[in-house]
Design a protein that fits this description.
By secondary structure, the protein is mainly alpha-helical. α1 packs across α4. Keywords: Membrane, Transmembrane, Transmembrane helix. Pfam families: Fuseless.
Length: 339
């Protein structure tokens, strides 16, 4: 039964949640393109980046008051959480869109610019021990909305308000703005390189190629997860973690990042080919995909809520080098807790 649930979890994440999340991101991203200073790319980028990162930082810093509110008023927590996740998701998309656009404006879209962005993103995230954050998205991440401590967002250095307000706020800022911007830089570099390398003259063929490679890599990670985790655990037992453990983690996270970016790029480009490019359609798709994700209790999967540290388990349920995917398993546990 456990194996069947895990298999179904991955199918839901790959074939249902991932397309819905990409549709939501694409719809809101296009709305921002059309509505926020479309004739002034630099100013539009600064506006959406500053607004998005500011709101994301504020919600991360205020997680303790939100958690207190949830404990005091448990009956209203669902409504507050839905609103919280909607605002944070919109802020994340705004921040990503602004940062991406600014890098396009100031560094260009040449292959060398893309390669430089990719290398800078990978190198800086490795130094921060935050490379895994680049792969924290469907189809390799799925968390239901009913999870306990729904307002809790882990920060890079795990600081708390009682450690000092200044220290806590700096940790929240670093975790949200710095690591978040580096993830955007990595994604933009890889995405732009794929645009240049995977049949650039035929968008449909390029999208199909990207989808095929991303799908194969995703399924490969699904199949290899158990074996890789055993190898990593064996390295810990023998004490050979300083080099081989870090190397294994880095390779895993790079493969996972490619998988997620390739799938997202493919779904985004396929939507560009079949969906009419208008404000009305973008609004309808954004609202519809967001509504379905809420019905599935998967709206938490829209933004990347919290920061994961390389080599550290994201939750007690998922050890290092495992995929943070739980749907039927988590829903069953939630129903058991309620009963």
């Amino acid at each position: 039964m456990v194996e069947l649930r895990a298999f179904l979890d991955r199918c839901v994440c790959l074939f249902v949640v991932a397309p819905l999340v990409v549709a939501y991101w694409r719809g809101l991203w296009n709305l921002l393109d059309d509505l926020v200073l479309p004739d002034q790319p630099a100013l539009s980028g600064w506006a959406t980046a500053c607004a998005g990162w500011s709101v994301a930082f504020a919600l991360t810093a205020l997680q303790e008051p939100f958690a207190l509110l949830a404990r005091r008023y448990p009956k209203s927590v669902k409504v507050v959480f839905r609103l919280h996740q909607f605002i944070y998701g919109a802020a994340s998309i705004s921040a990503w869109r602004g940062t991406w656009l600014l890098e396009d404006v100031y560094t260009g879209k040449s292959p060398w610019s893309a390669l430089g962005a990719l290398l800078v993103g990978i190198g800086a995230l490795l130094l921060c021990r935050g490379l895994r954050n680049a792969a924290q998205a469907p189809p390799l991440m799925l968390v239901i909305d009913e999870a306990p401590d729904c307002f809790k967002a882990e920060t890079r250095f795990r600081r708390k308000p009682e450690d000092g307000v200044g220290t806590y706020l700096m940790d929240c800022c670093f975790s949200t703005v710095v690591i978040g911007s580096l993830v955007v830089t990595l994604w933009r570099g890889l995405w732009t390189l794929l645009d240049r390398l995977q049949i650039p003259d035929s968008p449909l063929t390029s999208a199909t190629t990207s989808l095929s490679s991303g799908f194969v890599t995703t399924v490969g990670l699904f199949l290899a997860e158990g074996s890789v985790r055993q190898i990593h655990a064996h390295a810990h037992k023998t004490g050979n973690t300083q080099f081989w453990g870090l190397l294994l983690e880095g390779m895993w996270n790079l493969c996972a990042t490619y998988s997620v970016v390739a799938v997202w790029r493919a779904l985004w480009m396929l939507a560009d080919q079949v969906v009419c490019g208008s404000v009305l359609w973008d609004l309808v798709i954004t609202l519809a995909s967001g509504w379905v994700l809420s019905l599935l209790c998967c709206s938490t999967s829209v933004p990347n809520w919290g920061t994961v540290v390389d080599g550290v388990a994201p939750t007690s349920e998922f050890p290092p080098l495992s995929l943070d995917i739980s749907y039927f398993t988590a829903m069953a546990e939630t129903n058991e807790d309620r009963s």
